[in-house]
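ok so I'm stuck.
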Amino acid sequence: MAQVESRLIIAEAGVTPQQIFESMCARWLANLPTFESDSLTDDVVIETPFAAPGHPTRTEGKQPVLAYTRAGRASFPVRFEECRGVVVHETADPEVIVVEYELVGTHTVTGVTASAPFIGVLRTRDGKLAHWREYQHTLAIAQAAGQA
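replied:
not stuck anymore, here's the structure
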């Protein structure tokens, strides 16, 4: 656990988009909500254009994002074990990266282990997350959660 805790990054000026993504991965693997209050801009936007039915495709503002991600983590019965295949694509804007990754996790009720691929676009401002757009393989997620 000390290793995971050492990877949890508190955003401050100079924190790179890659470091913010690394912190997100560390928090997933530690079974924590994706974000901390001090890692987000006040006007942060989280988008999941292909969100499952009944889930928002856009959440705006620090407090709504924190509430949504905390509730989501608490209600999602999967323990993430690995964030693998990470490929970071830098862009012409030093505050923006595109990241490909796969999350592997085990359903805490059924014991089934599965994985799903993702693509995310991460934008920072002053060392904090300003915008996260995540494209999810919703069918793989639903299957892993026993919902498909």
